[in-house]
Amino acid sequence: MSVQQQVMDKMKEAMKSKDAVALTALRALKSAFMLAKTETGAGDLSLEDELKIIQKQVKQRKDSAVVYTEQGRADLAEPELAEAAIIEQFLPEALSDEEIEKVVEQVIAEVGADGMKDMGKVMGIVSKQLAGQADGKTISAIVKAKLS
Asked: What's the CA gap between 57 and 63, in Å, rounded?
């Protein structure tokens, strides 16, 4: 079953249980999928594209929550974090820092990277391998630490 189908099923459940927060989050996710489909004009999205969209939606909500919290608006931050948690259900299990480090070390060995000048190469490969399983910031920090 595709991620989009899972979202639709969860949306139906949210409607039946009258869960407004979940419904808002899932509708936004569905909207993002539809927008991506019309932008590319390709029809169906690949699993990789779906995961990128989900990650973007989660990041958007977490960033908003941080801004709201900094501004002292916990009343606005809480729904954003709740929506992020609902959307995160559709992402694969996130890897631990140790698991990410192993992948980074393996890619550095394969590429033969020996300094910060090779960070772009390493980041590109690792980001593709860990699509949906790790945050770009985390990957970047680990690659930077290993190459410096």
From this structure: 10
Six token digits for residue 51 = 């995961």
How far apart are the C-alpha atoms of 61 and 28, rounded to whole Å?
11
User: Distances in Å between the alpha carbon of 24 and those of 7, 35, 59, 102, 143?
Assistant: 12, 16, 16, 38, 36
Q: Which amino acid is at 52?
A: K
With 0-12 / 13-18 / 19 or more C-beta atoms within 10 angstroms meaning exposed / middle / buried, residue 5 is exposed
Q: What is the largest CA-CA distance in the chain?
A: 56
pLDDT one-digit tens code per residue, 88-125: 888 888 788 888 888 888 888 888 878 788 888 888 88
**pTM across the whole model:** 0.75
3-state helix, strand, coil in the chain (%, to 5): 80, 0, 20
Q: Angle, to 10 degrees, between the axis of helix 136-147 and the axis of helix 119-129?
A: 140
Do you know the residue count of the chain?
A: 148
Question: 115 near 74, Cβ under 8 Å?
Answer: no
Rounded to whole angstroms, the Cα distance separating 30 from 23 reads 10
